[in-house]
């Protein structure tokens, strides 16, 4: 199928929306909105105001469920309010994710350091079976070792605490509490999954989880969530690639009980969609 859509100026796009039934009470405000957000991105917020196609016109293969026309009384002001809500939601989530990330770094560092100051660098203090699992042409431990050493080498150019250690103790591995400070958030799940079960469980319980594997899955999901927030991606109605699926005994205490209730969200793909 040939792609036939052509470039249009913003006023032309706005006229197209009006022709399809979307009210535009304040044209200047609407043009400013399209200038700030972009027509394509605004489509994610406009989507829920488009008419549903009749069942016989739905094309699941092409993910076509709605027509180009809008439901009665839909206005671009509704779209603008939805985008403003999403922008505020992202800021709130970023604040919570920042605290989560800092706490996770501290929890992993403290737990591993109690075994050895360089526990991250030795299979002796990690789970041997997890370390020996394949990761491409390497083992997971070999891949992890490459990851943290590269993170340290890169950060050492700017971080005085790393320069100090590397100059004063050239024969010793950088301690775990320094390594966790320079790892990317996306690298933390790899280290967590190499920890011995009792250690991983200790970290999980700091966050209200009974089972390390469930918490590990949540950490990976949080990485995806954080990346969406940090890169300015839409959160409203977004389906993430990893699902949140918790059982009755996976969490401890009451703070996460709402996630265990059936129907805690009425959103489609409830375990994946925000």
Summarize the topology:
Layout: H1 10-19, H2 27-37, H3 39-46, E1 50-52, E2 66-70, H4 76-113, H5 128-131, E3 134-135, E4 138-139, H6 140-155, H7 160-168, H8 176-182, H9 188-194, H10 197-206, H11 212-230
Antiparallel strand pairs: 1-2, 3-4
Structural description of this entry:
With 274 residues, this protein is mainly alpha-helical. The protein folds into two domains: 10-74, no CATH class; 87-260, no CATH class. Helices cover 51% and strands 4% of the residues. It is built from eleven helices and four strands. The protein has helices at 10-19, 27-37, 39-46, 76-113, 128-131, 140-155, 160-168, 176-182, 188-194, 197-206, 212-230, and strands at 50-52, 66-70, 134-135, 138-139. The protein has a two-stranded antiparallel ribbon with strand order 1-2. A two-stranded antiparallel sheet has the order 3-4. Helix 4 crosses helix 10 (197-206) and helix 9 packs antiparallel against helix 11 (212-230). The two termini are 32 Å apart. The model has no long low-confidence stretch (mean pLDDT 92).
């Amino acid at each position: 199928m040939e792609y036939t859509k052509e470039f249009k100026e913003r006023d032309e796009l706005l006229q197209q929306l009006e022709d399809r039934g979307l009210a535009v009470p304040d044209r200047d405000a609407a043009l400013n909105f399209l200038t700030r957000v972009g027509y394509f991105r605004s489509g994610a917020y406009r989507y829920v105001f488009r008419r549903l196609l009749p069942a016989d016109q739905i094309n699941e293969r092409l993910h076509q469920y709605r027509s180009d026309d809008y439901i009665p009384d839909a206005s671009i002001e509704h779209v603008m309010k939805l985008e403003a809500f999403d922008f505020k939601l992202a800021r709130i989530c970023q604040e919570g994710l920042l605290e989560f990330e800092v706490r996770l770094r501290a929890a992993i560092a403290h737990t591993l350091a109690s075994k050895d100051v360089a526990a991250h660098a030795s299979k002796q203090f990690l789970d041997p079976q997890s370390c020996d699992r394949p990761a491409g042409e390497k083992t997971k431990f070999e891949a992890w070792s490459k990851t943290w050493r590269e993170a340290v080498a890169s950060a050492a150019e700017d971080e005085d605490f790393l320069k100090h250690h590397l100059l004063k103790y050239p024969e010793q591995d950088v301690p775990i509490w320094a390594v966790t400070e320079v790892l990317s958030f996306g690298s933390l799940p790899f280290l967590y999954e190499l920890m011995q079960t009792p250690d991983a469980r200790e970290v999980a319980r700091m966050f209200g989880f009974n089972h390390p594997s469930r918490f590990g899955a949540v950490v990976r999901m949080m990485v995806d969530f954080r990346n969406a927030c940090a890169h300015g991606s839409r959160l409203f109605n977004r389906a993430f690639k990893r699902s949140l699926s918790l059982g009755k005994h996976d969490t401890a205490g009451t703070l996460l009980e709402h996630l265990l209730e059936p129907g805690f969200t009425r959103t489609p793909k409830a375990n994946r969609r925000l």
